[in-house]
Amino acid sequence: MSAAPASRAVLRQSRLLLRRNNFRQASTASEAASKAQDTGKQAVSKASEGLTRVQSSASSTISKVGSSAYNAVSKIGGRTGRMISFVESLIPPTVYYSRVGLELARMVVKGQSMAPPSTAQFQSYLQPLINVARNPRSITSSMSSMTNSVNPESALSTVRNVNSQQLTTAAIIFAQVLGFFTVGEMIGRMKLVGYHGEVHHEH
């Protein structure tokens, strides 16, 4: 009977030791994981610092090369120097107006729900031009067939069958074009009012 309580005590002790050992291993594993994470963060920060140093040195080197090239080009005189300065003066407005035009085209495409043409449409429109380039003698036959296909009655019927939505769209586009033309004229004249002509005196 004394063996049973002793074996129970040994069993309890072994379980307690196993629990403590597992707890110690878990704590050392979590400590190792945190250390590995810290070293990983340090390595990443060092790598990013090195990368920023490389980028800053490269950008400074590129800017030095660019400034030296600009200085060398700016020292050129005569016609070539004037031509270079003229081209340099055209670059900023060209970039600006190209961005404005791109944004305007994007707004028009989005507003009118437009889509680029498919390759089949491109091919259907380009095929006659390719055929003419291959066989230039076919121009006369294509011109005669085109003049025969133009029918004034069909053109008149399409004008008569225009619906109100198409008329509204055409009127809006006409108003926009007229407005842009008028603003361009005002900018060109530097006046809001038209040109003043000479007063005609009757003799």
Task: Write a structural description.
Its main location: mitochondrion. It is found in: Mitochondrion membrane. Keywords: ATP synthesis, CF(0), Hydrogen ion transport, Ion transport, Membrane, Mitochondrion, Transport. This is ATP synthase subunit G atp20. The chain is mostly helical. The protein contains six helices and no strands. It has helices at residues 3-74, 78-111, 119-134, 138-149, 152-160, 164-189. The protein is elongated. The model has no long low-confidence stretch (mean pLDDT 77).
Count of runs of 4 or more consecutive helical residues: 6
Over the alpha carbons, how many angstroms does the gyration radius reach? 41 Å
Q: What is the distance, rounded to the nearest whole angstrom, between the alpha carbons of the first and last residues?
A: 152 Å
Mean pLDDT: 77
Order of helices and strands: HHHHHH
Largest sheet: none
Structural class, please?
Answer: mainly alpha
Shape: elongated
The total beta strand count reads: 0
Poorly predicted ranges (pLDDT <50, ≥5 residues)? Answer: none
Strand content: under 5%
Helix fraction, binned, reads over 70%
